[in-house]
Amino acid sequence: VEDNGRLAGLSREEMKASLKTLRDMASRLGATTRVLRERKANSNSVKNKNHKRIEDHNCDRRVAEVLVTKVRKGDRDDQESVTDLRLAVVGSQDAGKSTLLGVLTQGELDNGRGRARLNMLRHLHEIRTGRTSSISHEIIGFDTNGHVLNYAEMTTAEEICENASKVVTFIDLAGHRKYLRTTLLGLMGYSPHHVMLVVTLPLNEAAQEHMALCLALRLPFFIVVTKTDLGLFDHKQTLVELEIAVRAQGCNQELILFNNNDNEELSRHYESNIIPVFAVSSVTGAGLEELTNFIRDLSPLESTSSDDEPGTCLFQIDETFRVAGLSEPVLGGLLVKGAIAPGARLLVGPLPDGEFSPVEVLSLHRNKAPCCLVRASQSASLTLAPCNKRSLNPSLPHLRPGMVLVSIADHPRATVFFQ
């Protein structure tokens, strides 16, 4: 770069050496680099010893724009991995799911008129009606001392992930029966480790349906009774009503109302023989501390040894979206088995003709923060590029939800029907 800001550019050898130096510097600082674009300099003229500009026809000088991103501390080789927990939130409409999540993630109590849920809603019609119709994600973190990290203390998700030893991803699902298919997609496609069933008294049919879904899918769940500040909450009556609903679904687990600080013992046994019940208020804050401590002590399901086998990979694509500045779409989904790193060459498909197309992974993000490795049972978003860049028009095939990314060694085949 000249004194007046003009981009003089570098030769190919100088550019290669400069990029290598930049990569080495970023690696030592716990960051990664990616070349966003590279082009020829505006002028191929250079200066001689007398500071006179002369044409240099033998030197093809180029300039490059490089993105330097800080890597999550759990993805560095010298750091212990950050624990990721996926927690789906289900319940009937008007049960207070989005309001409760808004209080947990923002650190501010609700005003009784739904102010806390505004940050959880994605569409204008959701804000107008107060009903969630899509799947939204929010996170909170916990540091090594068990202190909660939310947007009351941190300004961005990247900052939460950088300082947290455990990250909890809330998957807010629709409660209206009209959007039941969307709820099923969240429970099955996103593979949550646990489910938080939010109910309000008296129980309605939708709450019992969501309870039946958790039991049918064999997802461990706990119950949160909201709106206790309205004066309609009675401990004994609540347990009786919930026990009747659970027994009607053929479940013999014991329900325990959690209102003390013995959360470690409860977290250890809840998946096997008991269903914890919490009574909270998003307006007064009653019961929120006990609920937060219980979520802190929850642990994700351990992945089997076959999930981390080297050379295998299965990434299911749940959504595709566009980001400003990127020509290719961004893919979001869950890594079922294996591991993915930038630069990995995979197959995407099946395409309409049943074939799979070779692609290369350009970048990875988890919890809105760039990372250099995604492991089995982790959700992530990634960008792809076609492997055959020497063709006249290298481009990705049309990507849609439902496709998968698999290893080349798996030799996948598309099947029309099963016998």
Automatic annotation (TrEMBL):
GO MF terms, alphabetically ordered: GTP binding; GTPase activity; translation elongation factor activity
* UniProt cross-references to CDD domains, sorted A to Z: GTPBP_II
> This protein's superkingdom?
Eukaryota
Q: Tr-type G domain: which residues? A: 86-298
What name does UniProt use for this protein? Tr-type G domain-containing protein
Read off the lineage from the record: Eukaryota, Metazoa, Ecdysozoa, Arthropoda, Hexapoda
